[in-house]
Amino acid sequence: xxxxxxxxxxxxxxxxALGREVRPFEGLSFELKAGEFKLVTGPNGxxxxxxxxxxxxSYLPTSGRAVYHSSLGSIDLACAADVDITLLRRSEIGYVSxxxxxxxxxxxxxxxxxxxxxxxxxxxxxLEQAATSLQEFGLKPExxxxxxxxxxxxxxxKVNLARALIRPNRLLLLDEPTASLDLAARTALLxxxxxxxxxxxxxxxxxxxxxxxxxxxxxxIEIQIxxxxxxxxxxx
Length: 236
Ligand SMILES: Nc1ncnc2c1ncn2[C@@H]1O[C@H](COP(=O)(O)OP(=O)(O)OP(=O)(O)O)[C@@H](O)[C@H]1O
Ligand SMILES: [Mg+2]
Known about the structure:
Blueprint: E1 2-15, E2 20-33, E3 37-41, H1 48-56, E4 63-70, E5 73-76, H2 82-91, E6 93-96, H3 108-118, H4 123-137, H5 153-164, E7 171-175, H6 183-198, E8 202-206, E9 219-222, E10 230-231
Parallel strand pairs: 3-8, 3-9, 6-7, 7-8
Antiparallel strand pairs: 1-2, 1-4, 2-10, 4-5
Helix pairs in contact: 3-4, 3-5, 4-5
Adenosine-5'-triphosphate (ATP) is lined by residues 13, 22, 24, 42, 44-50.
């Protein structure tokens, strides 16, 4: 079953200060099935993160479609209303970045429990599951009640993963989630991703060390650097 159908997707950035346009990718097309793990590859600056952000809709694509087959019907993520995107992010589409964005005075447990609380899970159960998730990724229990703003990069990333993966998704976008993880946490992540894949979650991921997830990857999509930057807004 196709979960996501990306058709001729294009993203351009206008750099107004320089009168130039950066074009990470143009006319990109691919399909992602339920339970498929697709690796996004390409050199630094090619547009890998931009692609994931366009699908998660942190960025608005310039043109093309990204048709997502949700449990409630099909929707084009490239032009869906913000309210629908918010709903999908809460219920079906997950995104794991390389960094946690900790809030001041929110404990690790609180941050991890939040997606469950938003989904209407009762607080005691949400906190219990948050503790299980933190345990799984190997965050020391003495840090659970502490504020992640002061955590090390790896500790923050454990909180980030525990939070992003606490709720079942149907589509999961991963942007270099293993960069600062120790072996135990990488193993826990691999175990969790395998479980999600077996449950039919579609995975689209960027991994700096693809061998971290080698056994799970089904295929890949390569993004090339576009040779030309285009000058805009200026007469020749
Ligand atoms: N918000 C933005 N405004 C302008 N240009 C941007 C923006 N976001 C990304 N870019 C540009 O788009 C291009 C692709 O960036 P992107 O972050 O997607 O690359 P990447 O393939 O993820 O690279 P890396 O491997 O270094 O993470 C880069 O040239 C970058 O400068
Ligand atoms: Mg990137």
